[in-house]
User: Fold this.
Amino acid sequence: MKIDRRCFLSLGIGAAAGTALSPLPWKLMDDSSIWSQMWPWTPVPEDGEYTYVDSVCSLCPGGCGISVRKVNDRAVKIEGTKDHPVNDGGICGLGVSGLQLLYGPTRVKSPMKRIGERGEGRWEKVSWEIAISAITRELKELRAAGKANTVGAITGSGRGTVPQMLKRFLTAYGSSNFFTTPTIQDVYAEAFKLMHGKDAVPGFDFEKSTFVLSFGSGLIDGWGSPVRMIRANSTWKDNGTTVVQVEPRLSNTAAKSDKWITIKPGTEGDLALGIAHVIIRESLNSKKFVDNHANGYLGAIDASGVFTQGFKELIMSSYGPDAVEMRTGVAGSDIVALAKEFATARRAVAVCGRGQGDNPADIKEVMAVHALNALVDSINQPGGVYTVKAPDYIKWADAEMDSVAGEGFAQERFSGITDGLNALFISGANPYYTMTDTTAVKKVLDQIPMIVSFSSFMDESAAQSDYILPDHTYLEGYRDVVAVNGLMRPVVSLAQPVVKPQFKSQSTGDVIIALANSLEGTVAKSFPWLNYQQCLKETLDSMGPEIQKNGFWVDKKAAAETGDKNFGTASGKFEFTAITDNTTPAESGGIPKLSSIELAGDKASYPLLLIPSDSLRLANDTIGNPPFMVKIVEDMILKGKSSFVEINPDTARKYDLKECSEAVITTPVGKATVMVHISESIMKDVVAMATGLGHTAHDKYLAGKGINVKSLIATVQDPLTGYDVAWGARAKLTKA
Amino acid sequence: MKEEGKHGKANKFGMVIDLDKCTGCGSCMVACMSENNVSFKEDESDKRLSITWMKVYRITNGKKFPDAEECFLPRPCMHCEGEHSGHSPCVSVCPATATDYSTQTGIVSQIYTRCFGCRYCMAACPYHARHFNWWDPVWPEGMEKFLSPNVSPRMRGVVEKCSFCFHRYQLAKDKAYMDGRREIREEEYQTACTQACPAGAITFGDLNNKNHKVYKLVKPDNKHHGKPRNPHAFRLLERLKTNPKVYYLSSRDWVRAAGDNYTVEEKRKGITSGSGSGH
Assistant:
């Protein structure tokens, strides 16, 4: 048979048709996909005995109880503890994600010594003995050279045994340079010192309030103890409590509030005093309180015959609704209505601290807001704010100090983390990421010859350190966790090991004892405990059996008694003078300047205001977002590797910016390329940027995504407290 | 039905989500992922490819500043019953019986080993509650340790969705049998999202049981496809007659109206109440 072209083609077509019609290719494709689906790379989790271990979460200062489900020796799920005084079964996303931190790739698996350049990421694994003896050698040299005071430490809140051991270590060594990371709670404490004469923190009786006036506090965005606040919000919904949110942007808190009052950022204190003006004008204030329990409410003539203005005169002369409207952008009629509602509510409370309150605020602003509570007699009253004594259960004998320690300790304390330090210990803090003006902070920190990090995770500060001495995570060891954040009844909890340590980490408490012992002498003598567990047990024993039985101890007596009007001030009264002191008089017709706080940069070059926005979906403190949490970040906050700025359509038109287009944001200290999200939920000329992005360390799920808004903000120091109180930055936006 | 006789009364598990209380924190989403071994990728910002059995949407009233309002709307699988039992949009199109409606529990199942990835169900689901595994899941080294044996991790090529934490139902049922009971108690079977929600915004239970909180909250009219009798309650896309078992509560009119779609004509006439007009 001759095979011609025609025959060849028809054979070919026939074969093709035959193959297509036959089930063979389809069967093969099906088989191969089924077969490859069955490849063992999809893990089959091992089954076993189920148990629950109760402990406490310490990923934020909230102090929630957690119940961890285990299968054999694996922890498989974190849940909130039912009936726990803080969270009663509820839990936030970060709390649930804790196991991703425990088992995740960001763990530092053994002590590490830097071998490359700082931050280069080249490390050598060393034994604990080598790491401790190397650090001890440096510390001994500094001490011998009379530079003991140049060794410092930075921690988170500073509460609890581990930070206090670190502080004790420095004291015995000869340095007073122990620093904490201040928050709005610390400013409240300073304000309470001045106004109440009390060493106390604020405890808000939110659950009983009938009217909550929040000056930008992200009450359900992570302010205070986050789960407790969300629960309080549900109580408000059930009870019909009115919540008014004063904020330039429709945060989740504003979205859930009954009224959102938009305000020019940074003028919240003026609005508070504008409200005070209307309350006084309409005689809606508590006469009993201002007459009997207040000092400086009315002006007085002193011995030399000079009249000093009181709070009332200052407010009445300068803070009329019209003047306040000019300053704040809040309509005068709104101010009047709000003041009347606030003052006539049964149990009203005013609160401040922007966003999650992670940053300190201008103390004058805090005092102005707190004055509203005084005016309507909501202090130490149900539904109001109480002065709360922070738990004070650490009662160790003073550290032993030899002459070197005495000399070092007597030296003037540094104002903060400075390049004057020769060594810095970092525990429970991540200054390379969380401190305002990141670039400048890095420059200062880079000057410090030795940085030792106690971080369990490779965070920004650990990545920049010389030694990492990894702590157990909160799920692997014992530690005490103190929750005070806005709580009426502070809770001290005992974290216990849920699983055995996964890597060669050691409790920081034990490491401090080891360092002290290898320094010998009085430093070693200051730490008489065999190990950290013994120290912790002895310390907690003084609190009674409750904490070791239940895992937590509620300080029921911490809050002042209801109706308590004992003030520890020199006058024995509530001090309105704290507000009126150091006020810059008004320029003609305007409002006096309460404080000298001004953001960096001139308004002409930087016409916009950049404000950070906090969310419970983006951890922005020492702990960074684990993968689950990165997954739930909205796509108008983060898209690919780009973070967004949120602006009003009006602002977008002005700078010719389109939705999802690129723009460059410039502030006096930084510059970044961002994407634009146009929204009706923000004031014009205000630019919002999410906090918690722009990490350079951690894992690939988080690193390199977006911009750290802190890198765009210049620090502003409050002369009264010394805290950095920058709430934003002047900025400009240009098309990219 | 036959099975009902064998196992006692049929349940109809459903959920009520109070949108006045939901703060949009996203805890339910994470609790769901952690409970159900949901995978994650390096980049999850393309939300069409992001597997979220529970997803919290942000909706707005569309008004200009400063009258803009926002509300958060968590969306699990609606476990639609359809016009007659089991006529769920997804169940009726699945060629593999990989997804089925249980008249015993009212839960729409998803059996991964049966699913061959045709994704008809995804096209049929009006709630975007179903997700396709385009890739095999990869957990970074060490992280497989937190995987729960209660739920099998999914492989490439299958569809997955919220199961109302069906494994928790099974565990509760097992426990009840061990204790010599036929019925499980309300608190014995709760989904992971319900349990985690810090706001207490999610309520879960049996819509057939008048003593359960879900029933009391929405008062479903079980003779008329479970329509809510609470005027603040609504369901998503009620007019599609999917008969979902997830109800929402909101005191705000615009939120309830946002639960459905309307024709231009209806919008003009102002017919935008979420409850629909029935037959």
Observations:
- Chain A touches chain B through 78 residues (CB under 8 Å).
- The first strand of chain A starts at residue 50 and ends at 56.
- The radius of gyration of chain A is 29 Å.
- Residues 147 and 351 of chain A are 44 Å apart (CA to CA).
